[in-house]
Write a structure and sequence with these properties.
Elements: E1 58-62, H1 67-78, E2 82-89, H2 100-114, E3 118-122, H3 124-140, H4 147-166, E4 171-173, E5 178-182, E6 189-191, E7 199-201, E8 207-211, H5 228-231, E9 234-235, H6 243-252, H7 274-278, E10 287-290, E11 296-300, E12 315-316, E13 327-332, E14 337-341, E15 352-363, E16 373-377, E17 385-393, E18 396-406, E19 413-418, E20 421-428
Parallel strand pairs: 1-2, 1-4, 2-3, 4-9, 10-14
Antiparallel strand pairs: 5-8, 6-7, 10-11, 11-12, 13-14, 15-18, 15-20, 16-17, 16-19, 17-18, 19-20
Helix pairs in contact: 1-2, 1-6, 3-4
Length: 429
């Protein structure tokens, strides 16, 4: 007799179009910009081929105490999995309002409601070293880090993933808005590279990472470091759902988190003023605020605390009656100065580019060919930008743009998409 789980699909994937072949979608020619797609039916079918031969595959769900991870656990339990809820305890500074105890209590209540085991996993050391120390180090060097990307890489799909697998888990699940699809049956497709002869393109491995169907909540930007060997053991149960549907499911399951507000801010720690946070580790040093004519018009607390495009946190002393909002358009760490302008795109020097180099690359679903047309996203929620792969080498790549791009900040993640597929990403040099 088949188990309940063996007739279901874990990926939350859906056909990418009415005529889409089974497996990962690979587009011909220039990649289309991702768009919202309709789903057939209330719940997308899940792929039984992802299951192990166990009667009840074991899955450890990372529970944050929020609605997304709670519903993820509930859906997996409903579909016949052997579910264990895991609350990850991370390092938190003494001067920030502590909420982890309340979040942990909510996670425990969810597990009690669902009748599943609950475990607390202490990853304070790993979080402090791989996320907080990394973030401070990057800011000190004048770069703008992305701690949420590093949190996913080193904590959720690093230490937690490794621990869960050692405990015998077949899968690790989270409440991320993203999708995983199988590409085992994908065929070789022809992809145009500029005006050259079409090249052959094949998905890199058996799994593909796709954007969520709810584009307002899509979190694929933070997941570009996932590797093929991980994707086969990772589940995103709500990636095919929209946020209102998730809350309705939470109400249906009677979960205490149904109306809980979404967490914001730094991964796990929550909403925090970054400058105030960094001042506990980096000494502030007053410097000059310059206009684009290099005239001193104010002061700031230290160039390392500011990001290109930022419009708050500095003081303007020379004001006029018709002052407009001012944005940081460049900064000089050695001179400890920032330059501001009322034109946010009036960036200077290295912040205005038609090509960008990235390092520490990871290719999730395909090794890009030279000249391959793609879309890229340099910041979370930023509009996708048409681009092409100019060059790739070990751990590095060069991306070219049709027009000048502004505010490509060193240290940030540049994520590369081909249609809905996350090809990979890297860190802007």
């Amino acid at each position: 007799m088949k188990s309940q789980a063996s007739s279901l699909n874990l990926t939350g994937s859906v056909p990418l179009s009415p005529r889409a072949p089974s497996g990962l979608k690979v587009f011909r020619g220039s990649p289309p910009a991702p768009k919202q797609l309709r789903r057939a039916g209330k719940h997308s079918p899940l792929n039984p081929k992802r299951y192990t031969l166990n009667a009840s595959p074991k899955v450890f769900v990372g529970l944050s105490g929020g609605v997304d991870s709670s519903v993820s656990a509930a859906l997996l339990k409903e579909q016949g999995f052997d579910v264990t809820g895991v609350f990850i305890k991370v390092w938190q500074p003494d001067w920030i309002e502590c909420t982890w105890k309340e979040d942990r209590l909510d996670a425990m209540r969810v597990c009690a409601k669902l009748g599943i085991p609950f475990v607390t996993l202490d990853l304070e050391k790993e979080y402090k070293k791989e996320v907080v120390d990394y973030m401070i180090r990057e800011y000190k060097s004048g770069r703008t880090p992305n701690p949420d990307v590093m949190c996913n890489k080193e904590v959720k799909f690093g230490a937690f993933y490794r621990w869960a697998r050692k405990q015998g888990a077949d899968y690790v699940a989270t409440g991320h808005y993203a999708r995983i699809v199988e590409s085992r049956k994908s065929k070789v497709h022809k992809v145009k590279s500029g005006n050259k002869t079409p090249r052959l393109y094949r998905p890199y491995g058996p799994y593909g990472l796709l954007t969520a169907l709810d584009f307002n909540k899509d979190q694929s930007y933070f997941l570009w470091n996932l590797k093929q060997e991980q994707l086969g053991h990772v589940l995103f149960p709500i990636g095919h759902l929209e946020k209102p549907e998730v809350r309705k499911l939470a109400q249906k399951f009677g979960l205490i988190t149904a109306d809980k507000k979404d967490s914001q801010g730094l991964c796990f720690i929550g909403k925090v003023d970054m400058k105030d946070f960094l001042k506990n580790f980096i000494q502030s040093k007053h410097g000059k605020v310059l206009d684009t004519a290099r005239k001193v018009i104010g002061y700031h607390e230290g160039a390392v605390f500011y990001t290109i495009g930022e419009r708050h946190g500095f003081t303007i002393t020379k004001k006029t009656a018709d002052d407009k909002p001012l944005y940081v358009v460049s900064k000089n760490g050695k001179a400890n100065t920032i330059t501001v302008s009322d034109e946010p795109l009036r960036l200077e020097g290295e912040y205005k580019k038609q090509t960008v180099s990235i390092e520490k690359t990871n290719w999730v679903s395909g090794i890009p060919k030279k000249g391959m047309k793609v879309h890229v996203r340099p910041r979370y929620r930023q509009e996708l930008i048409q681009a092409k792969i100019s060059n790739t080498s070990k751990g590095k790549a060069t991306i070219g743009f049709n027009t000048l791009q502004y505010g490509l900040t060193s240290g940030q993640s540049l994520v590369i998409y081909y249609g809905e597929t996350v090809v990979g990403g890297g860190v802007i040099q």
